[in-house]
Amino acid sequence: MIRIQRLSVVLALLPIACGDSGSGDADTNGVSSGETATGDGDGDTAEGNSATMTGDGDGDGDGDGDGDGDPGDGDGDTGDGDGDGDTGDGDGDGDTGDGDGDGDGDGDGDTSGDGDGDTNDACDEFQVTVDPVAPNVMLVLDKSRSMFTNYWDHDNNNNTPQITRWNSLYQVVANITGAFDTKINFGANLFPSTQAQNVYGPAACITSDFPEVTVSTANGPTILAAIPAANVVNSYGGTPATLGIDTAYAHLSSLDPAIPRVMILVTDGAANCNENAQSNFQLFEVYDSNLPALVGQAFTDDDIPTYVVGIDIANMVIDDGVGGDPNGINPTTVLNQVAQQGGTNAFFNSQDQAQLQAALTGVIDSVKTCTIPLAEPPFFPDFTKVFVDDMEWDMVDNCDVEDGWVYTNPNGPYEAIELCGAACDAVKIIGEADVEYHCNPG
């Protein structure tokens, strides 16, 4: 009896037109028998006292299409699935948890969503396999005359012919770029350049102001084509390592500092060809002490380290007069100083080709990064999972002392993660990581 009285009140307040057509009615009054209602927002094509509809799309599940939760009464009660605009009642108002007539309950008119009425609310769960950021590495290669005229026991086997130091270096560069071309952005610079002449004077120190090969991806074939072939034996020049590093440094300085930048100096002796030399003797027989200062500047001012790899370096003080090697210094000592100023502690010396290969491989492994870019920021950052070779690593608080991973920007935007400790070591070996995006399970 009470319900009938309430219905009478509502009907008294709302006008009823017999025999008309209703469009977009979105109200809660019933219509008289035989009336046709279209565009009423509930997904069916008719409603009324005599109508019986199923699958009407109004979200209330009663089959009548009126959105009130009762079969066909359209009474206008609040909170009961009546189409009155109350939160959570199946009214199509777009509030969280309602029913709006499109089948998903979110009020946005499509068939996917979470019930809150916006259009960017779906949380996709998926996995991506990503590579760490590739560092930019300049190979600064010694093309002095001694690299082509000095032979060595490259395979540590007295029963095989010896080959030139340059032959070994060429082969190692081919192996290194072939193995790491997709993980490292390589470039190369020669000192001196191929324009250097076989003279005892400044023309033997000519070095290009621009790298033979600028840093780029998949650059191995380009580098091998730009440097002397393995079997070349008549190349000439001094050891203008400072000029070679200067050119490489200038190029790396022009690149994005957010991507790690590295120089690798490969040489068979101490630097000469000082630009300020007052005589040919000073040019070739006096050590160019500007080299450690220059790599120190690169490391201190621009965070560009310099690794030094030696080829058959003598551990003794050189004093050979007019021989083309700086006198009065131990090349092992000065090359260690270059490495120290360049931020890499000590140089690597090699006595055969296998050691040269191992030294350069070790340097490349050390300069690989552990930063993983994320093409899409996670919808729920706290629920991201990271795997390396099927092993899951936890998100940690301090990357310096813990094994796991952190967001590079802990406060967002979450555009990259960094692996830490043992996780970093693992990704350097495997070369990739799997990142899973998960939604909040609550």
Write up what this structure looks like.
With 442 residues, the protein is α/β, with parallel strands linked by helices. It is 24% helix and 17% strand. Among the domains are: 136-367, von Willebrand factor, type A domain (Rossmann fold); 371-437, no CATH class. It is built from 10 helices and 17 strands. A hairpin with a 2-residue loop joins strand 13 and strand 14 (391-393). Helix 3 packs parallel to helix 9 (353-367), helix 5 runs parallel beside helix 7 and helix 7 runs parallel beside helix 8. The model is unreliable at 1-69 and 72-120 (pLDDT under 50).
Label this structure with key terms.
single chain; 442 residues; alpha/beta; Rossmann fold; six-stranded mixed beta sheet; four-stranded antiparallel beta sheet; 10 helices; 17 strands; disordered N terminus
Percent in helix: 10-25%
What is the mean pLDDT? Answer: 80
CATH architecture of the domain at 136-367: 3-Layer(aba) Sandwich
Summing up helix and strand content along with how strands pair, one would put the structural category as alpha/beta
The low-confidence runs, each spanning 5 or more residues with pLDDT under 50, are 1-69, 72-120
Name of the CATH superfamily of the domain at 136-367? von Willebrand factor, type A domain
**What is the CATH first-level class name of the domain at 136-367?**
Alpha Beta
